[in-house]
Request: fold
Amino acid sequence: MKDVVFIAPNEIRAAFSSAMSAMYRTEVPAYGTLMELVAEINAEVLEATPALRRQLEAAGALDRISHERHGAIRLGTPAELSMMRRVFAVMGMHPVGYYDLSTAGVPVHATAFRPVGAEALNTNPFRVFTSLLRIDLIADERLRKEAQDVLADRRIFTPNALRLTDLAHGQGGLHRDDADQFVAEILETFRWHDRACVSADMYRRLHQAHRLVADVVSFKGPHINHLTPGTLDIDAVQRAMPARGIVPKAVIEGPPSRTCPILLRQTSFKALDEAVSFKSGDGWTKGSHTARFGEIEQRGIALTAKGRALYDRLLETTRAVVRPAADGSNAAEYVAALSRAFEAFPDTWEGIRAAGLGYFTYSPTERGHQVRGTCADGIDGLLSQGYVRFDPIVYEDFLPVSAAGIFQSNLGDDAGQDFVASPNQQRFETALGAAVLDEFEHYAAIEQASIDRCLSTLRSLQAAE
Ligand code: OOG
Ligand code: NI
Reply:
């Protein structure tokens, strides 16, 4: 029997995420230190809040709280992106959302390949923020052509990775041995290469165009540039980093600390200067490159379009008054301004729900089961009678302004450049070879399905009277 059973994509993803974590900890020791710190602080939080511990335990999530929740890569060509989509699909990771970062001075657009659906997310939440270089945003025509030629020549997947991906798509899955080999082969694509495939001179010219262009074009593959475990107290980890010898970026990206967390908060340690060598005639010359770092994240409720618009407005208001400086000199001032601005965002679940700012799931309460409330009342009526409860849906996606902040602090703080804002989802999707899932529609559908389920449960209870 064993031979005919395919390994579940969730399981392949879990193996991949754990292999990637092990590889990255070896390659970037500071990341291992961050992981330890995160695990310690998570343990402290659980110790101090037994209710949270019980809740995570009941959800079967206790073992995994300190595991990686995402990573990021940057690709060079449409062909790389479309192949990457097929590779991630084997692991149950699908493109969700479109992020245009040109507005923020970074010449890429992106999506997140992630598990979709509660069960998949629960089994293993690992996702990869995947950017595609906007080569059209390189102004210098000659350099653009050279960069294109270098990219056209590289092969970021091993022949076996290509073969196993085809096999998985052809037969609808992978058996144990193939799945193990698939993970090992795919890992190669994400590995660091300290030998550049360009000369020091070309690297310098690419770097001048944009540091990110140099990072994408100069190397043999799209090295994983960070991994990101989840934390239960991002403020505590941010404060504790320096004592462990790791330098955090100046401020935490995203919303301020709140009673009811919204969207996503993230921070990182600054990318390391790493020794690399560049082509020089028949040999190599020494140099350095800055790309790899470690990040942490803490997630809150997914916001509706209305909630997101309010979030964006409040963030903009704050940044109009004080822009966080890279050296941290005005960090306290920024945090204070951010908290002040966000006083306009309701900070109770009832308030967020009543104002239509967030997405929730609904389920019958104990009382709903007993009294068998009348469904004629609709969900709001049932709620007010205590027959139904609501719980926030966790935001599983990313935030372009935050992503740009992470990019910026890790590419060097002089990396910001003005590009004409030119979102082009259609071009991205053409490169990808598929449409991305609209995150708002997705959360709305989860909410609606829970309402439908809730009403039909209560209705069938009534019918059984
Ligand atoms: C990706 C930055 C985006 C996040 O957490 O917002 C990201 C990159 O630097 O390649 O990972
Ligand atoms: Ni990240």
